[in-house]
Design brief:
alpha+beta; three-stranded antiparallel beta sheet; 3 strands
Length: about 100
């Protein structure tokens, strides 16, 4: 289940880090959901979370989820590197403009 939550975290561009993890149970169905929460400003919010169904996640092979997590991290690093490169290739674009 932890590997599935880590994969969901890696796939979400809004969660920059994991500040806490919790498991919730739906009152009507009893379905368990694991949450990884990112709270950049503490308790004040906003809060960003990713969630996985615990039962479904426990059936997924951890190795598969960890491999997908690594793949996602590599893609994000490449995209960030390309973005930085574009910024160096086009100086002034997106910077302040004089009118």
């Amino acid at each position: 289940m932890t590997a599935a939550l880590l994969k969901a975290y890696a796939a979400d561009s809004l969660t920059k880090q994991i500040d806490r993890v919790a498991i919730g149970v739906a009152p009507g169905t009893g379905e368990k959901t694991a949450f990884a929460v990112y709270s950049p400003h503490g308790d004040r919010g906003p809060h960003f979370d990713v969630r996985v169904n615990v039962e479904q996640a426990s059936k997924e092979p951890a190795e598969q989820n960890l491999a997908k997590t690594e793949q996602l991290q590599q893609q994000q690093a490449l995209a960030q590197q390309e973005s930085l490169q574009r910024g160096q290739d086009e100086p002034g674009r997106g910077g302040p403009r004089m009118g």
